[in-house]
Amino acid sequence: MKKRPNILLTGTPGVGKTTLGRELALRSGLTYVNVGELAEEGQLYDGYDEEYQCPILDEDRVVDELDERMMEGGLIVDYHGCDLFPERWFHIVFVLRTDNTQLYTRLESRGYTGKKLKDNVQCEIFQTIYEEAMEAYSEDIVHQLPSNSPEDLENNLEQILQWTEQWIKDHN
Predict the structure, then answer these.
(1) What is the pTM of this model?
(2) What is the Cβ-side half-sphere exposure of residue 108, based on CA atoms within 13 angstroms?
(3) Cross-sheet strand order for the sheet of 142-146
(4) Closest alpha carbon to 82 in 140, 152, 46, 131
(5) CA dist., res. 59 & res. 83, Å (int)
(6) Directed axis angle between helix 114-125 and helix 100-109, to 10°?
(7) Is residue 171 within 8 Å of 163, Cβ to Cβ?
(8) Could you report the per-residue pLDDT of 30-54, keeping only the tens digit for each?
(9) Scanning 17, 23, 93, 168, which has its CA 20 to 30 A from the CA of 11?
């Protein structure tokens, strides 16, 4: 059986992880996993956050749910956090970054308001997810990618596909 890499796509909500992940799966043959959808399907929650108006992810149950599949390889995991996942899971981590004014517009169009909107834009300004990734994983596997335009999407797809092909060649 051919070994295939596990890729983490992370970043603030609204940076384009899902769009990139779904298209990457189509073009690479890897399996796309949206952690938010996985949690919803399996009801992997531990309560509800009134302030942010969203369910609270049960991180341990998510990790348990994914562990076996991660060991098989070939997954693209999409989530706005990254320090909940074991370091051994991923061969590369891509942190998508978006210009703050664009991010604000994208989140507003999703219905984000008030504190939730402000906190997510601040998260991007302060590079919170990038710093989290740098602490959670070996620095040499963490990469930032701009995610502002359709051109960025195409460039990111091309770059990740090239990396994936090279990884498969090197490990088989």
Answers:
(1) 0.96
(2) 7
(3) 31-34, 75-78, 7-10, 92-97, 142-146
(4) 131
(5) 10
(6) 150
(7) no
(8) 999 999 999 999 999 999 999 988 9
(9) 168
